[in-house]
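Subject: design request, 274 residues
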């Protein structure tokens, strides 16, 4: 027997802590699910859901949400702002094209599985997930081509799967992932780092990217110093030119005053004598 519909009356189970309605043929969830304020574990995987109700964000006690193996095209916009206790989010095997920026506010999130979707990228602020330990972004295929520079801020990350995507270069900050011990980069057209480094394993990759990051910072510092020096020289030239202009104006004014000033009585007297 499979459930096709969950009644709105489920919202009356206000002491419910765990709900498993996986492997059914549900196409939607009732808005009343947001009334389950004590719900900690929700499993709606293996259904035909195309969206999660916005009200699911009101289930603020949620620790684990499994919405995998559905037909989800997106997640509720504010889901991350409300689910501050969520530690595990499973959304693999869906059709999600992008994650809402609010996901970056899930401060308690430790486990995120988003493989086999249609992700075009990650929110710029993804680095705010400082407690994230496991991340699977594999098999987003031709859609996932790059990662944001804030990726290096995921300081707790231990396991990362990026296989079967179209990533050409790891972000320059990748070498800052000190706790990363397991990494899968297979089936990507990687150029940075080069494959000879990738084949040496995760430590070699981190070392290569760390050195690359230091070199980039050093080059930026050099350019900054050069610009400051050029600005300083330009400022001196500007001041010098301004000074010369003032002198020129004063001299011109003096000459003009001298040449064009009214003739004095003494000048008239001399003319008469001559």
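Subject: RE: design request

Done. Sequence follows.
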């Amino acid at each position: 027997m499979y459930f096709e519909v969950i009644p709105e009356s489920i919202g009356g189970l206000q002491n419910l802590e765990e709900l498993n309605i996986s492997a059914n043929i549900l196409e939607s969830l009732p808005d009343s699910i947001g009334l389950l304020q004590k719900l900690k574990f929700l499993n709606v995987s293996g259904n035909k859901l195309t969206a999660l109700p916005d009200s699911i964000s009101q289930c603020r006690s949620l620790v684990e949400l499994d919405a995998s193996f559905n037909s989800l095209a997106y997640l509720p916009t504010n889901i991350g702002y409300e689910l501050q206790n969520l530690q595990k989010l499973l959304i693999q095997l869906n059709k999600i094209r992008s994650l809402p920026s609010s996901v970056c506010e899930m401060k308690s999130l430790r486990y995120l599985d988003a493989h086999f979707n249609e992700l075009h990228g990650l929110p710029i602020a993804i680095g705010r997930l400082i407690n994230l330990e496991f991340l699977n972004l594999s098999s987003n295929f031709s859609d996932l081509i790059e990662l944001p520079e804030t990726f290096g801020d995921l300081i707790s990350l231990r396991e990362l799967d990026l296989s079967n995507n179209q990533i050409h270069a790891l972000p320059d900050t990748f070498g800052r992932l000190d706790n990363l011990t397991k990494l899968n980069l297979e089936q990507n057209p990687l150029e940075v780092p080069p494959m000879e480094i990738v084949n040496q394993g995760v430590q070699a990759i981190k070392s290569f990217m760390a050195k690359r990051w230091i070199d980039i910072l050093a080059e930026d510092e050099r350019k900054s110093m050069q610009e400051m020096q050029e600005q300083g020289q330009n400022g001196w030239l500007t001041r010098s030119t301004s000074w010369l202009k003032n002198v020129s104006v004063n001299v011109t004014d003096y000459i003009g005053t001298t040449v064009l000033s009214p003739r004095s009585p003494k000048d008239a007297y001399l003319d008469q004598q001559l």
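The radius of gyration is 34 Å.
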